[in-house]
# Entry
Amino acid sequence: MYTLILILHVILGIAVILAILVFQTSKGSALAMFGGGGDALFNTASGTSFIKKFTMVTAGLFAVTSLLLTIIGSTRQMSSVVQEFPMQQRAPQQQAAPSQPKK
# Structure
């Protein structure tokens, strides 16, 4: 369940970025770099309202998945590598006595 919501969250994040950067209807939109006709494609009232609704719905779903991931993540029992493999106690190493030089 957590993985499914996380994948949906990433997809919604990419969709929000694309909706804001690529489909905006200003003169500086990303579609204008392909010949300057970016405004003509989405200039109608229905196109603009569709993009606005799409962006609002996508951003709302992104916020909902953010909250769900926070709630699930806080109640989910997270395991740690440290818990699975506890550090073993080492016996202190005894220092060897300095060896006597040979004559």
